[in-house]
Amino acid sequence: MNLREIRTGKWNDKLLKLCAGKEDVEALRTKLGPVPEDGGGSHGNVCSYFVERYGFPQDCAIIPFTGDNPATILALPLLPSDAMVSLGTSTTFLMSTPTYLPDPAYHFMNHPTTAGLYMFMLCYKNGGLAREHVRNSLNKSLSADPKSWDHFNQYAISTPPLAQKSQSDPMRMGLFFPRPEIVPNVDAGQWRYEYSPQSQSLKKLTIDAQETDPRAIIESQMLSCRLRAAALMAPHKSPEGGKDLPPQPRRVYLVGGGSVNPAIAQICGEVLGGVEGVYRLDIGGNACALGAAYKAVWGCERKQGQTFEELIGDRWREEEFVERICDGYKEGVFEQYGEALKGFDMMEKEVLGSAVVDGGTTGGAIVNGH
Fold it and tell me: CA-to-CA distance for 192 and 207, rounded, in angstroms?
């Protein structure tokens, strides 16, 4: 709860005093009680009421539960710096990290099982629907099957990164929000810009760039994830020769409907990196239910001192659920997207600033635009 500090694992004295009012702060602290950080610790066995009425076994153990997004991160025994990207109707970016670095732009929570680890989460409204919007617009211009991904994929792969044919060309980037977005907090709309890394300048475009939009929509979604996760990434050694590589995920795991699209997967890896590559995780239709089941198994069957990652890792059969689908880190390309991050950040801030101004003059389209 919000009275408790994630980093220290203790109740915040100032907040307790605020909530206690004229009452005794220590009395409130006693009522709240201690909060164990062991996500699999036992709270005893099930009450006899449930045994008698519903037939629960008497030795049924009670362990702490968790929410749907924390459970999703448990569906795969992620190692620190591994990233999971859900490419569904919305886009969700999840990481397990030992680095405590909260920010208003994302969710930062205790890891649901492991003390000393934290859960980093980004949630975007615009995911699959935004990609479909670009696909449909392109297919309409080509008089093609509206639901076919063939032309979208063709243009996405044939367009060079950031639409740069040479290093001297400006970087083409954009924001594509058929729905109002959370990160950044702006109304629906499309914006396209050119960014010059040499002069660090932005130029707004008014053209309809249907041929470059398929790549730009994927780049836009992944650049937003990379921008916000950059400070949590760790440097790695290349698997082949031990060469020092830039900070990036060890692996990138893709789930959701978009993960089966090879063009989307390839560009995700090019933007986000992934020292060991990009993998598709096929665990059925409900990752959060599977993660919750793993948590229950760990709570009931773990040995003394055995971590969640150790127990599930020992039983995990990666070849049954995980498929390596493409490379992640590509030397030169990853660094090129790194240069684009400053321009992408500038673009978001410019769009956000203009949206707040427009909202103020038209009756307030942005409620939480601060």
Answer: 8
